[in-house]
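Re: your question about FAD-dependent monooxygenase

S., sorry for the slow reply, the queue was backed up all week. Below is exactly what I fed in.
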Amino acid sequence: MTGTATVVGAGIGGLATAIGLRRAGWSVTVLERRTELERYGAAFGIHPTAQSALDRLGVGDALREHAVPYRDAHIRTPDGTSIARLPLERIERRAGRPELLISRPYLLDALLAGLDAFGDVPVKLGERVTDVDALAAGQDLVIGADGIRSAVRTARFGDRSGPREVGTVAWIGIADIESPVHGETWGSGRFFGLTPVEPGRTNWYATAPEATTADELRGLFAGWHDPIPRILAATDPATWIRYEMRHLHPALPSFVSTAASGRVALVGDAAHAMTPNLGQGACTAILDADALTRALAAALPGPAGVAGALRAYDRERRRSAQRTAFASRTLHRFMSTERTRLRDAAVRLLPG
Ligand SMILES: Cc1cc2nc3c(=O)[nH]c(=O)nc-3n(C[C@H](O)[C@H](O)[C@H](O)COP(=O)(O)OP(=O)(O)OC[C@H]3O[C@@H](n4cnc5c(N)ncnc54)[C@H](O)[C@@H]3O)c2cc1C
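Result:
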């Protein structure tokens, strides 16, 4: 069926959903509270399942234009000893294509270009949605793609579920030098990640609860293996992003609402914000967008059709996304432990 929808939020989840809806013949408007789309952010891992979803949304080629494959990455101790391989080769063998990495601005550009190609999907900037019922009253569907502090989620599910800090400060950045090694280095209560992102550049992320300034962060990783200190020295601290790691807690009872005040679906961080340890934040938002818009495209006409499609979307995505969020949080605890001997012994047992 087709209908009218407003997508709240022009992040990865909102733009991907707008494309899917428009491809299904819906009339779509995107409302974004920021006055311009922030072109910052480090690299996202895009799993083969999310790549297939982007192919179905018609933006797979634009993704591949700027993405690089992620292969041969290890988990190391701070002296540089490899204790396991990340399961990238297994993922590639099973899926027939590699995990890709792409910087957030390029992924946003790919989605915006996909949307622009229709020529009739307005992305209205500087529009902060506060009255969700009023918005929902005027159309067939509102999509809450408005991130971890979602106003759409709060309007329908109250504030029982909300952002919870996990007690870790994360730093991310991109250095203008290429690292010869990739993967993660796990120390006591802190870790450092290095991934490719574009030729000549390296994406990095670090967690260190004690570091509040760039100098402190550099000091904490000063004795770690090459090229970690060089990577930090080669990145201008003015470009580093520092944030408190958070996830949505407790998990929502539903990703959709078919209340009399109007139909609503949540996608991405609004529905299931997770810690970044599994690198699944962008992937799960893309999978939500794909599942929701496929269900709507296949729905029977009329309000009952939309309601049925929303339930189908909830069945397809909620448990799966919430399992991923739980696994990411569990991995966060495991990576951040100070009982490193036990942890590293367990990691050495992982299949190669
Ligand atoms: C500027 C920025 C940089 C980021 N950089 C990284 C990074 O480097 N690495 C990483 O792993 N993750 C990063 N993230 C998070 C990552 O993009 C998300 O976790 C993931 O892509 C899921 O996206 P989402 O679309 O669900 O949510 P988000 O990316 O959070 O997008 C939500 C959008 O909704 C808008 N919005 C919120 N409330 C309202 C409202 N009431 N009315 C209208 N609009 C509203 C927000 O401004 C935002 O644009 C970043 C997010 C942002 C916004």
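Residues 8-14, 31-34, 38, 40-42, 44, 104, 128-129, 145-147, 151, 172, 268-270, 276, 281-282, 285 surround flavin-adenine dinucleotide (CB under 6 Å). The mean pLDDT is 94.

Happy to talk it through on Thursday.
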